[in-house]
Amino acid sequence: MNRRLVKFISLALVVVLMTGALGSIAVAQDEKTLTILYWQAASTVNVYLSGGTKDQDATALVLEPLASLNPDGEFVARLATEIPTLENGGVSEDLTTITWNLQDGILWSDGTPLTANDVVFTWEYCTNPETGCAQSNKFDGVVNVEALDDLTVLVTFDVPKPYPYNPFVGASSPILQQAQFADCVGASAPQCTDANFGPIGTGAFVVEEFRANDVVTYVRNENYRGAADGQPFFDRVIFKGGGDAESAARAVLETGEADYAWNLQIAPDVLLEMEAAGNGTVVAAFAGSVERLIVNFTNPDPSMGDNRSLYMDGENPHPFLSNIAVRQALSMAIDRTVIAEQLYGAGGRPACNIVNGPPINVSPNNDGCLVQDIDGANALLDDAGIVDSDGDGVRELDGVPLVILYQTSTNAVRQNTQALIKQWWEAIGVETELRNIDAAVFFGGDPASPDTYQKFFADIEMFTSGTEPDAQNFLVRWICGNAPGPDNGWLGRNVPRYCNPDYDALFEEYTGTGDPARRAELVIAMNDILVQNYVLIPLVHRAGVSAHGNDLEGVWVGDWDSEMWNVAEWTRAG
């Protein structure tokens, strides 16, 4: 088929896709055209001016970082020759610098060479305070980026960085071409529409047409370094936005009208029914997100007045959740497999750890939680003398009934999770009152509101958050002195109000250790303290759910980086 006819069919397909929300694709997919459906449409192809995943992924087809992260959380060199480490001398002994060596001969899509000056410029672009760079946190602590020669970049930090891989790593920190963006630094950045909608890149594809909040059409980058190996394997990509998750899923799984659909927030039974049509496969992008219960170690009773849920140097303990037997019994009573399979489907698997990736950081020591044990939980409480003394079905500890207020945000899956857990806890003599709060309020952080997750005016609460490939910014949450309270506007990150000097000592060592193997050992040790003391009760390791056609090969999705991170390797079978 000649290229003119291919282009005609591809453009016709775009027109049909644009009819309605996603449209009904009446033209068969050409084997050299890749159709990707994102029900949240791209608004730019410059990730530095957007925090949205849709824009990050639209950018990832064009712009590349020095290194990516594969679905196992492992580094993959992209524009760099290798990953700098302490062992190979790329990271300095004092952990204050990292040196990146660029591959020789990499060309921008306009045929000009990539150089270290482009890397330096990217840092200058994003860190200019008037640019409004959405990814500026990637450069926190960076005091200088220097081109030592055309292919060598030195990044210097203000303090030792045991994990120096935030700048220029991953789809949210790609390299911009200095020649194209030189006049787009600072206040002029948003006005550079030609550059923002059609950046010159080193990636597999080039923007042919950009329609904001609708569709992006790409063609192959003839200067792509993988061209000798036939990459990319598609001549054209249609990145279509709009519609809804269910329509996108049907287009891939039932009708076969599209190749890939992203972020399928659909009931598991509905998604399974679609997949049964046999046209496509559901894939889950797991990373570090875990739905968990948070235990309040302080007294949230309204009778405490201004001291409600305050740590008070440990002098305001919870009347019964301070007892580890109670916390352990609550965990033992939960059937995580039922929650994961019935409520999350492909998007969840039962979790026993608070740190669930990358694999090197995952503890092997807590898998016992995968087996629900109601009888064991009852026996544990009986042995601890926590019994139902008055026959009302509720156990007491020192005269205080085990009555739990269990709160979370308003969300159908979360309310179903609450209902199941309430039933299991009542089977061990724990009365449970359920409360759900509008997500905008619960996660809003308003210091005047009594209903935020930080205020934690409840006994147990539930939500999801997760770690990055490096766990330091995640594990810092549970060090002593970091509890929410009026002195910090209720924004402290240690929501359980937990304090353990042993944990703090491990964290302090972690922040000064650059050896990856030792850092992994410390992550596992800190995870085990939190989990085995039931400070946090993990429930479900959550994933983003997407789908691709059965004839699409090479797709390997994870949540540490863009789902498009290896799109150059995608190909159609046959």
How does this structure look, described?
The chain has 574 residues and is an alpha+beta fold. Helix content is 24%, strand content 20%. It is built from 15 helices and 20 strands. Strand 13 and strand 14 (400-401) form a beta hairpin. Helix 8 (324-332) packs antiparallel against helix 10 and helix 14 runs antiparallel to helix 15 (516-532). The longest helix is centred in the last third of the chain and has 17 residues, at 516-532.
Which keywords apply here?
alpha+beta; disordered N terminus; D-Maltodextrin-Binding Protein, domain 2; 24% helix; 3 domains; 574 residues; Dipeptide-binding Protein, domain 3
Spell out the blueprint of helices and strands.
Elements (H helix, E strand, L loop, with lengths): L2 H15 L15 E6 L14 H8 L6 E3 L5 E3 L19 E5 L14 H12 L14 E8 L2 E6 L20 H4 L11 H5 L7 E7 L3 E6 L15 E6 L3 H9 L6 E2 L6 H8 L4 E16 L28 H9 L3 H9 L3 E3 L23 H10 L12 E2 L2 E2 L1 E7 L2 H15 L4 E7 L1 H4 L17 E7 L5 H4 L25 H11 L4 H17 L3 E14 L2 E2 L17 E2 L2
Parallel strand pairs: 1-9, 1-10, 15-16, 15-17
Antiparallel strand pairs: 2-3, 4-6, 5-6, 7-8, 8-9, 10-18, 11-17, 11-18, 12-18, 13-14, 19-20
Helix pairs in contact: 8-10, 14-15
